[in-house]
Design goal:
This protein is mainly beta and 486 residues long. It contains eight helices and 31 strands. The strands form eight sheets. Strands 4-31-30-29 form a four-stranded antiparallel β-sheet. It has a four-stranded antiparallel β-sheet with strand order 5-6-7-8, with no helix packed on it. A four-stranded antiparallel β-sheet has the order 9-10-11-12, with no helix packed on it. Helix 3 crosses helix 4. Strand 6 and strand 7 form a beta hairpin. The protein starts with 15 loop residues before the first helix and ends with a helix. One of its GO terms (biological process) is protein homooligomerization. This is Potassium channel tetramerisation-type BTB domain-containing protein.
């Protein structure tokens, strides 16, 4: 049968120069018209990029589904998928047929589209089995598409950036406490009561993985458990591909942060080793939170201990290039110790949420060296200062379960089932022109959902795992922007 009338073609009064660049395509009996410039965006690996100009009377024939090809051609024109979003498995298969799946997945969740106040629930991903997710992670985007990794029980499941397909890996861990997504083909999992960092490979390339180890261990204590992990790939700044892993020995009498090269998967350095002598546990608190500040070339390592006197913690900043034994800055937390701590390259600051007050505090990295830095009180409360002072004076000893995380130029805090976001705003000139932090809520403040146990940010997405829910929530601001501006 002859192809139907052209779809997406050019106007009859086009110039001879532009007509010479027009490509006519017969896709499943339907005629499409586009330009060589549009098809060149498919990349050299796609057969579409090599198609020469052709007339409607002699179109190139492509064996494909015209309904799906319409979306792919629109993607090449606009650089983003307008609909459907996320793409169906059939659309991804069609994109793979034309070698467009990589570019399509990479465009789904761009970090440039991230806007915290525009985050909306976009998908609910059910997990197999009965175990609720204990940890979630998103691949850094760029350089990778923001695919999702979720740990539930001893299983680690990876969803592609389109959230249309999944691959699961069974680990020997009874439950995963810390999870890092290195790439769409590799994730790292650790547990507080089980030795080593376990590599979860989602690629079918068995030959490449055969030479690599399955477990990364602390050379000084192979039976040590993993308390926290971080990678340099999560920051936008150019850095060596390193993994930082906080280890604690099986007897809980020594700890250290070990640096691994992600290319060779071999240990390259040991940072801040601590050993417990006698009953002085507070002198050697291991790091339970790690974060890499690529723009400052600093590693944040923080840990706390609950005892009869309350919560006590240490926060340290390490310059990996300068010294592995002495931090460049350190503070001991006693009054209103942190429930959680995070660091922001963009804002040049360290943030904490108080264990007693639940208020958010900020320490400017540019002022931490004033007067030597070690042991000084650096914190400025950006929340309710009176509430923070009252909580510190009351001597409360319990934790509040709040979490804090930095992404791009925003600071996020979980409070039970809800998420609040802090952003930096500049006051008007008549008010002094100062930059201050302001708080808003993501979604509804009066949430009826269960407590958030893990979360992650990547691309334009936020992923949430809730207590007793065998699924992962995906919140996306790019989807909201596309719906608002079709």
């Amino acid at each position: 049968m002859p192809p139907s009338s052209p779809r997406g073609g050019s106007q009859p009064n086009q110039s001879m120069a532009s007509a010479a660049a027009v490509v006519s395509l017969n896709v499943g009996g339907e005629l499409f018209q586009t330009t060589t410039a549009t098809l060149s965006r498919a990349g050299a690996s796609s057969p579409l990029a090599s198609l020469a100009p052709s007339s409607p009377s002699a179109p190139h024939f492509l064996d494909g589904d015209p309904r799906l090809f319409t979306h792919l051609l629109s993607f090449l024109r606009h650089g983003r998928l307008l609909a459907p979003s996320p793409p169906s498995a059939a659309l991804l298969a069609e994109a793979r047929h034309f070698a467009l799946d990589g570019a399509l997945l990479a465009s789904l969740s761009p970090a440039s589209a991230f806007a915290p106040l525009s985050l909306r629930p976009s998908a609910l991903l059910p997990l197999t089995g009965r175990a609720a997710p204990s940890a979630v992670a998103l691949c850094p985007s760029p350089p990778h598409p923001a695919s999702l990794v979720a740990a539930h029980g001893g299983v680690v499941t990876c969803f592609d950036a389109g959230l249309a397909s999944r691959t699961s890996v069974l680990t020997p861990l009874p439950a995963v406490d810390s999870l890092v997504a290195v790439s769409p083909a590799l994730a790292l999992a650790g547990a507080r009561d089980f030795p080593g960092v376990h590599l979860c490979r989602f690629s079918d390339d068995a030959s490449a993985a055969s030479a690599d180890p399955d477990v990364l261990s602390w050379p000084g204590s192979p039976s040590a458990a993993v308390l926290s992990m971080a990678t340099t790939t999560a920051s936008g700044a150019p850095s060596p591909p390193w993994l930082f892993s906080s280890f604690e020995s099986a007897r809980r009498n020594s700890s250290a942060v070990v640096v691994f090269d992600l290319n060779s998967l071999s240990p390259v350095a040991e940072i801040g080793r601590k050993d417990v002598f006698g009953a002085d546990i507070e002198a050697a608190i291991p790091a339970t939170k790690l974060a890499w500040l690529g723009g400052h070339n600093l590693l944040l390592a923080a840990g706390s201990h609950s005892g009869p006197a309350g919560v006590v913690g240490d926060i340290r900043l390490w310059d990996v290039r300068a010294s592995a034994t002495v931090p460049v800055w350190e503070v001991r937390e006693k009054e209103d110790c942190f429930a959680d701590v995070a660091a922001s390259d963009t804002l040049s600051a360290v943030f904490k949420v108080g264990a007693a007050s639940s208020e958010v505090f900020m320490a400017d990295l540019r002022r931490l060296g004033d007067g030597g830095g070690i042991g000084l009180e650096p914190w400025v409360c950006i929340g309710d200062g009176q509430k923070a002072a009252a909580a510190a004076a009351s001597g409360r000893k319990e934790r509040n379960g709040c979490r804090i995380e930095c992404y791009c130029s925003w600071v996020f805090v979980t409070r039970g089932a809800d998420v609040e976001v802090w952003s930096q705003v500049e006051l008007a000139s008549e008010a002094g022109g100062k930059q201050v932090m302001r708080r808003n809520w993501v979604g509804s403040e009066l949430s009826t959902k269960t407590k958030i146990v893990s979360w992650a940010f990547g691309g334009s997405r936020m992923a949430l795992a809730r207590a007793d829910k065998v699924s992962v929530e995906i919140w996306d601001s790019a989807t909201a922007a596309i719906c608002a501006n079709p």
